[in-house]
Amino acid sequence: MDPKIEELSQLSPFELKDALIELASSVENRLMLNAGRGNPNFLATVPRHGFLQLSHFALRESERSFAYMPEGVGGFPRRQGIEDRFEIFVRENSHHKGVKFLAGAVSYVRDQLGLDAGAFLYEMCEAALGCNYPVPDRMLTLTEIVVGAYLRQEMIGKHPFVGEFDVFATEGGTAAMTYIFNTLRENHLLAPGDSIAIGMPIFTPYIEIPELNDYRLKEINIEADPKLGWQYPDSEIDKLKDPAVKAFFLVNPSNPPSARINQKTLERIAGIVKERPDLIILTDDVYGTFADDFVSLFAIAPQNTILVYSFSKFFGATGWRLGAIATHRDNVLDRLISQLSEAQLKGLDERYSSITTTPRELKFIDRLVADSRTVALNHTAGLSTPQQAQMALFSLFCLMDIHGDYKAAMKRLIRAREAALYRELGVAPEHNPDDVGYYTLLDLEYLGGKAFGQDFVDWLMKTVKPTNLLFELAKESGVVLLPGGGFGTQSPSGRVSLANLNEADYVKIGRAARKLIEGYYERFKSKK
Fold first, then answer.
1. Contact by Cβ (8 Å): 479, 24
2. Are 401 and 414 spatial neighbours (Cβ–Cβ below 8 Å)?
3. How far apart, in Å, are the Cα atoms of 113 and each of 98, 148, 396, 407?
4. In this predicted model, what pLDDT tens digit does every residue of 291-312 receive, in sequence order?
5. Pick the CATH number of 3-30+405-527 from 1.10.10.10, 1.10.3210.10, 3.40.50.1820, 3.90.1150.10
6. Is the separation of the CB atoms in 387 and 169 below 8 Å?
7. pLDDT digits (tens, 9 = 90+) for 96-147
8. Which residues make up the CATH 1.10.20.110 domain(s) of the chain?
9. Hey, is 310 helix, strand or coil?
10. In the chain, which end has fewer C-beta atoms inside a 10 angstrom radius, N or C?
11. Which fold has domain 141-399?
């Protein structure tokens, strides 16, 4: 193995990609195909039209407030009469797609969510203008209700759910992760040397963050089995019964296999939670909206689960940085904090005393908000209000899509790309009812065995390192994949995003990968 490649292979896959991209781009006039990145090339247009028209209406409202001032100066919108003025705006601009959507959104908020339409319009106008601090700092009041309804529809669905939950709007799912890890540590819920279980394979930072000097946590892998459609065997899930395991972190559907946890495993985890009511679960469900009838662990074990959701992938909104954390109002986190030693509680009293006179009553989710701004800057905490307005409109777009047309379109797009890729590979993907298809793993052993037999695979595994194959693929064909091993997969593989290129590009990727393997097969035959 090339010493430089050996050194690079130790990097996170997200850092290794830069070296692969450089190599793939080294041939002049050759198109580089980067299938390693998860950023989708599709996006939801209707709620964006809605945001632009909302901004237009909000600016009109602002200019009404300071009509006596020179042009270019506006004031805060006025609450009184805003519904009537909005109806006039809708009649005047009914030809705009975004205006039609806004009119439907206001009607939905009033008639289906039971909220005051005028109050919602006022909140949205002030949010779109970005003219005030986020108040409350955790999330705008009506926006939290709207986003909560969306999370309930997509993460809980028809599953029974008792009680209410709170939502904290964050700068994407990555910010949510950062805040959660930090607050768990600051509130003595996780300490150096504690054991946490990690559902593997997983988004690489979940592997890397606990190992940092900030946390120094002991990781116990819960391995999904590709032979079971990337489900967790009972023997792996049963590791959670160990009282030494403080928390279970996972991505569901998984990254990169894109397989959601099946009902049987969800119920097994729920049973363990009943035996272990102190277990903390952190589930990142960003890909859940690509599945039909998805059920989150937040629905199954709500009092023990922290839900993280990002709007980035489903709505093509990675640049908007929109995420949310949800916790049940009756949760294990608050109970565990209340059971800390008196010395620990006094330390936390001191930490949060500048923002409340009753720090011991401060909920975990509001500690997240305070810690996200180093407590002292809590008064300026919160996601920017224009971001929250767009988050509300994304949520309403799906709440109003009663037939699921947008979701169906996304699924068709991804499945067509997957079919094109595997068709050129010459191997049909195995059917998996729990696969949502955002990513696919090109498993070297599986594909090589299907195409040329186990003897060839055994020879290939002894002859070449998987990372070398990724570098060779990049050099020879300009195709960039990420190493599956960087996400904790046990078999040599490359992660392919099915979201960020067009169907014709996946045809080229399939051909390039097939050509690479065929080249090695010719070498194998000559050796024999």
1. yes
2. no
3. 21, 11, 11, 22
4. 989 999 999 999 999 999 999 9
5. 3.90.1150.10
6. yes
7. 999 999 999 999 999 999 999 999 999 999 999 999 999 999 999 999 999 9
8. 46-132
9. strand
10. C
11. Aspartate Aminotransferase; domain 2 (3.40.640)
d(CA 495, CA 480): 9
To 5 degrees, how large is the angle CA 14–CA 254–CA 437?
95
The two structure tokens encoding residue 380: 């300026």
Is the bond leading into 256 cis (omega within 30 degrees of zero)?
A: yes
Provide the H-helix boundaries in 168-262.
Answer: 172-186, 205-208, 234-237
DSSP 8-class letter at 256: T
Dihedral of CA atoms 351, 353, 358, 364 in degrees, nearest 10, equals -40
Q: Supply the pLDDT for residue 7.
A: 54
Token output for 526: 């000559």
Residue 53 CA to residue 49 CA, distance in Å, equals 6
- Chain-wide mean pLDDT for the chain? 92
CATH code: domain 46-132 is 1.10.20.110
